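We emphasize that the prediction below concerns an isolated chain of 358 residues; any contacts that depend on oligomerization or on bound cofactors are therefore not represented. The input was used exactly as deposited, without trimming of termini.
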Amino acid sequence: MKKKLLFVLAMILAATGITALIGVAAKGPAKKEGKRVVTSFYPVYLLTQKVAEGAKGVEVWNLTSNHSGCLHDYTLKTQDMRLLSEAELFLINGGGMELFLEKAAKECKGLKIIDTSEGFEFLAGVEHHHDHAAEEDEHDHEGHDHVDEDHDHEAEDHDHEEESHNEAEDHDHGERNAHLWLDVDGYLLQLTRIEAALCEMDPAQEELYHRNAANYRKELMCLRQDYADAKALLSGRDTVVFHEGFVYLLNMLGIETLHCLPMDSETQISAGEAAEIIEECALHGVTVLFATEDYAEMIQRTFGTETGCRVVALHAIDSSMGALGKYGEKEGYLELMRENLNRIKEAYGKAETDQRAN
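Result of the prediction step, given as a token string:
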């Protein structure tokens, strides 16, 4: 009888333990000790990692770590909302980059959101709707890769009715070009904003944050000087770019962007827009075009032969995917920005050599 009672008691305890484990699993891992800082995407994350390096009890998480597309399309997931609900601080790029913020602000009312671009003078943005119907009615320019000539809107799955569109679906990047991290002065401003935000959140480690920020500020100032030195050699040229961030990058070198066409997986270059770019290149003597590595080959096929221009791939430094991995998070920004500079100088040197040869 005693053995039977002991067996029943053991079964009850085991069942209770299993139920408790199921309850814990359903709730997920408990919030860790210390302070959690969340960043909206990679450029802000890189800076925050630099300033917070060595801070005790401070975790830095990047909300969009596994997202490699346009940030304007990002949709908050359940795990994102949980991460934000456990954060003391949410550091964003600003400039209209994070369209998903309305939901975060609404559901995480106690979350402190810091716009790291506050005070920056943005360049005008490009409204990019992937809709060039008006242009293609006027032009018929054949033979270009990724050029949308037919645009049979009735056959498409997308609803182009104006009332059905929202900002994310339209890829309307707004009135501002939010890619300020490709302007070293813009990145320096973001560094200062992040430094101040971390000091306010965690005054006990204020000295560490100031020291880290000061050290990285020196490195960014050296990078800025590298671009200033190159400006004397490159200033006065004109170009066409296929990423909004490169407008800031080339501005530092005195290179004027005549036309900017942001590229992503849904972009269709209309025949009219292609013809306009080709005409601008001829009219202004453009010799080099700039695109991201994902699209440089396609741009070369589409415009290289027609314009005679070199197409150079630059790093947008907006994701953990791709080239950043070979340098790592610690120094990746500096290395990629210098690699961009070297590619620009080399491209113009080769283009001018070709011109002299002809």
